[in-house]
Design goal:
Length: 433
């Protein structure tokens, strides 16, 4: 017999069926768990982490429409899309099977079942689930590799790196500030990676994107029946990050009246799910980020002063790209190499005139660039205008700088300065260069 692989979760209210499957399925799969109803399905998905759920269609003996099974099939795919669902019913209804497929079910098995057919379907579902999980793992590894911090050699970044080395192994709360695109989320990931919590999850939340009505539910979770669409218990971001790191991005966008709820959870190190009354202790390391001036918001009464001081144990201000110019060309080179490999293009490097223009750009998007940010032609025109309107001393400095940056390439230097080759020759002769 082939090596047994895969974890199967059976959800069926018939004890006889559960017992029969607990005898049959372990002959083909490494782990099998069976529960009598969907009431514990969410916790089973989290603790058992199955590859496939074999899901009964009906759990209410007076209602045999299959609606409950269809509902839970959809919920499973929402919660864990990589898990495959095989529907299990005593009623051979093609329309029901089609509806189940629309909601993401892998296949449909009719009771009484044929053992060979059941094992064949569950094996195929397991294989599909495992391929998806491997693909997701590779994607996550690729994202992690691509999102590693680029430190460069500038003084501001060297100082931040030394700070990270000191504070990463601690549980100190960190506030990261900086313009859009400076890499606040990447730095947060770097802190987590070098912390003692690196083996636990880092849960990132775009606090500014959460609607006010869902704020408490998203952060603290809710219990079944807490509101109209609360069909199951929901674990919030604080609980998901338990033992690890919670990263609250764009914290400056949280409305003032919700900041008190956040402060209470941070102070008490516990949360209460919406609709519940049990305080759940949470063990997290908190990292927050914003592109806003929180001190100014505090002065304006738009951000709670007590929350500001609570999240500001260690403050790291990431510099804009224009404030670390010596890192621009190495950063561009890194991106060039990465995308040359990705798209199988020959790597020709960055020409001196291009490097000079890159360095002189303002890069309003910082490391997160858009097409609008790349305006090299306009940058060249700006330099050309400058040289025509400066003193002789400044003009000589600009000419020397252009020649140095282009390694003496007359055409490139002239283009950078916005002048013709004959004009540049005249300038070089004038200054004895």
């Amino acid at each position: 017999m082939a090596v047994k692989k895969g974890k199967i979760l059976v959800v069926d209210d018939n004890a006889g069926i559960r017992n029969a499957l607990k005898i049959l399925l372990p002959m083909y799969f490494s782990e099998v768990e069976a529960i009598p109803s969907p009431s514990t399905l969410v916790s089973s998905l989290e603790s058992f982490r199955p590859d496939v759920v074999l899901l009964d269609m009906n759990f209410n003996t007076s209602i045999n429409t299959g609606n409950e099974g269809l509902y839970w099939a959809g919920e499973i795919k929402k919660m864990v899309p990589e898990v495959e669902v095989v529907l299990f019913t005593a009623y051979a209804d093609i329309a029901l099977a089609v509806e189940g497929m629309k909601r993401g079910a892998f296949d449909f098995i009719v009771k009484p079942w044929d053992n060979d057919k059941l094992i064949e379907v569950l094996t195929a579902a397991r294989d599909k689930a495992r391929k998806a999980m491997k693909r997701d793992a590779r994607s996550e590894q690729a994202m992690t590799a691509e999102s590693q911090m680029f430190w460069g050699s500038s003084r501001p970044m060297e100082a931040i790196r030394k700070t990270l080395d000191k504070i990463a192994p601690t549980d100190a709360t960190v506030l990261i500030t900086g313009e859009n695109g400076t890499g606040k989320d990447v730095l947060a990931r770097e802190i987590h990676t070098h912390s003692l919590r690196s083996g636990k999850p880092m849960v990132a939340v775009d606090a500014g994107a959460i609607t006010e009505t869902l704020f408490e539910s998203e952060l603290f979770g809710h219990v079944k029946g807490a509101f109209t669409d609360a069909h199951t218990d929901h674990v919030g971001k604080f609980e998901q990050a338990d033992g690890g790191t919670l990263f609250l991005d764009e914290i400056g966008n949280i409305p003032l009246h919700l900041q008190a709820k956040l402060l209470r959870a941070i102070q008490n190190r516990s949360i209460v799910r919406v609709g519940g009354n049990e305080a759940k202790p949470i063990n997290i390391r908190l990292i927050c980020a914003t592109n806003m001036d929180l001190e100014q918001l505090v002065r304006e009464g738009r951000f709670r002063e007590d929350l500001y001081y609570r999240i500001n144990t260690v403050h790291i201000a990431l510099p804009a790209l224009r404030e670390r110019k010596e890192d621009i060309v190495p950063l561009a080179q890194m991106f060039l190499e990465r995308f040359a490999e990705k798209y199988h293009r020959p790597l020709t490097g960055i020409a001196p005139d291009a490097a000079a223009m890159l360095t002189e750009g303002r890069w309003s998007g910082n490391i997160r660039l858009t097409a609008k940010d790349i305006q090299l032609e306009q940058a060249a025109k700006a330099v050309g205008t400058t040289i025509k309107a400066v003193s002789d001393a400044e003009e000589e400095r600009l000419v020397r700088q252009a020649m140095d940056r282009t390694n003496g390439n007359i055409s490139a230097a002239a283009k950078m300065l916005g002048v013709s080759r004959p004009t540049l020759y005249a300038k070089l002769k004038k200054y004895g260069l």
